Amino acid sequence: MRWHKRLFVAGVAGVLALTASACAGGQVRGAGGTPQPRASTGAPAGGQVNDSTFVYAPNHDVVTDWDPATSYSNEIIALSNIYEGLTRYDSKTKQARPLLATSWESSDGGKKWTFTLRQGVKFHSGATMDSEAVKKAVQRNIDKKGGAAYIWDPVKKIETPDPNTVEFTLKYPAPLDLVAASGYAAWIYDVDAVDTDGKKTAGTGPYTVDSWQKGKENELTLKAFEDYWGGWKPEQYKKVTFRVTPEVTTAWQLLQRGEVNFVDRLNPQLFDQARETRGVQVSEAQSFQNLLVLFNTAEGPLKDVRIRQALQLAIDYDGLVAALEGSGHRASGLVPPGLLGHAENMQPKQDLAKAQQLLTEAGYGPDNPELKLTLTYGIGDDDQKLLVTLLSSALKNLNVTLQAKPMNWSAQWDLGKKRGQDIFVMYWYPDYPDAYSWFLNVFRSNDKPQFNLSYLKNDEIDGLIDKLPELTATDKSAAMDTYEELQRKIIQEEAAVAVPYVQTYQRALTSDVQGYVDNPAYPNVVFFYDLKR
User: Fold this and answer.
1) In this structure, are residues 58 and 240 in contact, taking their beta carbons and an 8 Å threshold?
2) CA geometry: angle at 491 spanning 487 and 494, to 5°?
3) In a 10 Å sphere around its CB, with 0-12 CB exposed, 13-18 middle and 19+ buried, how is residue 278 labelled?
4) What is Dmax (Cα atoms) for the chain?
5) What is the C-alpha to C-alpha distance for residues 296 and 304, in angstroms, rounded to an integer?
6) Given a cut of 60, is residue 46 above it in pLDDT?
7) Between the CA of residue 167 and those of 51, 136, 163, 299, what are the distances in Å?
């Protein structure tokens, strides 16, 4: 959690001073932090951590689901070090690179994929990782139908011609090398050894669980898997602790004292200070994560598209980005830069006069009855709080009262699935480096809302979304045209969402850590095995 004052320009209202609590951006599918009182387990003796232990200081609870098939939340930061996929996305080359598969090839126009497996790999259970194990894991992910299981929708058949080869036959062309690199639902594990209580793990990754104490400050500790196929060197970290630290100022103090090695997000003032602090290094990287302001299209006053359009126009996009002071940049459409589907010409602009005109047409506005709207956002998230403050100020002048309620993610999500608010604010990032995730999960019709929290139902939009996977594999130009058409329909015609900004990741680490690289395909994940001390 973060506490600090930030000055920002609120449209023509002047300069406001704001004291807000916040958390790191980029957590549970849209979540802000979930700060709660905690009983401290105490720092290691002498303040400094053991130099073979890496300490990560997230601001939120780490594990909500231990099942590698259904996990779809915060625990990506831990499970990505316990489990591995066939491939991993390389943010520098923008391609998949080998992991459990050493090579692969596609044929039949992208409808058949053959992966050659790495030999000599053991699961934590002691079982051998071979083609049958891969088939069982992927099939279990599909059968569980949880989390990001949709990524395997193209798969028609999985065959294992020999222990080192897995063949996927697809119903339609798809980039299966990228699918296999997903941060969710693509991990390979020993199906017979899965423990959904987290007491033991069944992956192939470099770490296993040493201890898990849900709700404690030192919530989770990982230890080296000694039989890891990659081997171990003396300079690597053989133990990792996740020390939950809701307040960013506390995390910063712990970092300076060397009690933690990594803080995933600082406020702009502390980030600037970190640049100049001895013993500290910083990392700044563009993310694939943006903020979504979702409008209830199904019921209540926002069923009127004119009011939704007015809300889009009331947001002070420039003022908000200025207030973020480098931790976010203007969005253009739904898809962040760096992904197929990003549209350069869709930056939104504030227009209060047009907003007032639309509200008046809908029977509201300054000379009409007051309009009251409910909004939920992540508790303790400073960036979302800024948005709410700016929007509340702008709407007040239009005779619209925003009844905003900060909530922890689980409570906010439960309410959203019951259509319990007019406006739902959350973050989104893709499951693998492909824009399809925004459209399938957030805007395709769903009778029982999961992440479709605008409750949009539009057959034409659904049809376009369904074409995306095959077009992406076979005709990228047509896929780009479809993405642009979808964004025009969803944002401009339906006004189901406003997209204020895309986050910039700003990290701080102790200076002795070597080899850290931020990979936006795996938000807030540190691949500890790649580090040296």
Assistant:
1) no
2) 115
3) exposed
4) 75
5) 10
6) no
7) 44, 13, 11, 47
- Residue 87: partners with Cβ closer than 8 Å, 6 or more residues away: 96, 97, 98, 99, 100, 101, 104, 177, 178, 180, 181
Least confident span in 272-276, 453-457, 473-477: 473-477
Query: Nearest-CA neighbor of 417 among 373, 465, 376?
Result: 376
Residue 40, pLDDT > 80, answer no
Name the one residue in this structure whose structure tokens are 């932090």: 33
Count Cα neighbours of 114 within 13 Å in the Cβ-side half-sphere: 11
Residue 3's identity, in one-letter code, is W
More confident residue, 398 or 38: 398
d(CA 268, CA 266): 6
Residue 451 near residue 459 (C-beta atoms within 8 A): no
Distance of alpha carbon 18 from alpha carbon 259, whole angstroms: 30
Distance CA 6, CA 486 (A): 36
Q: Could you read off the pLDDT of 148-188 as tens digits, one per residue? A: 999 999 999 999 999 999 999 999 888 899 999 999 999 99
Contact (CB, 8 A) for 486 and 465: yes
Query: If you average pLDDT over every residue of the chain, what do you get?
Result: 89
Say how far apart CA 398 and CA 359 lie, in whole Å.
8
250's tokens: 């506390």
Closest by CA to 293, choosing from 157, 450, 436, 426, is 426
Of 408, 435, 440, 431, residue with least CA distance to 523: 431
Residue with tokens 């920002």: 8
| pLDDT one-digit tens code per residue, 346-361 | 999 999 999 999 999 9
What distance in Å separates the CA atoms of residue 302 and residue 300, rounded to the nearest whole number? 6
Helix (H, G, I), strand (E, B) or coil at 138: helix
The pLDDT tens digits for 323-348 are 999 999 999 999 999 899 999 999 99
